[in-house]
């Protein structure tokens, strides 16, 4: 998967799968995008913690609605 993003003329940010350019586009406000970028910089999206949590889940399935992966630090 490749991810493409760009600023729209209205200031919002569009995000899509670069390998599926005809597919859905997610649109975020500048505030939402800034919060995401700051979260990435702060390490809030630790995929290894998510993978470890899924491995421990009896079903091996996704997180339950509202359930957050454990934070390791």
Automatic annotation (TrEMBL):
<feature type="domain" description="DUF397">
    <location>
        <begin position="3"/>
        <end position="41"/>
    </location>
</feature>
<dbReference type="InterPro" id="IPR007278">
    <property type="entry name" value="DUF397"/>
</dbReference>
<protein>
    <submittedName>
        <fullName>DUF397 domain-containing protein</fullName>
    </submittedName>
</protein>
<dbReference type="Pfam" id="PF04149">
    <property type="entry name" value="DUF397"/>
</dbReference>
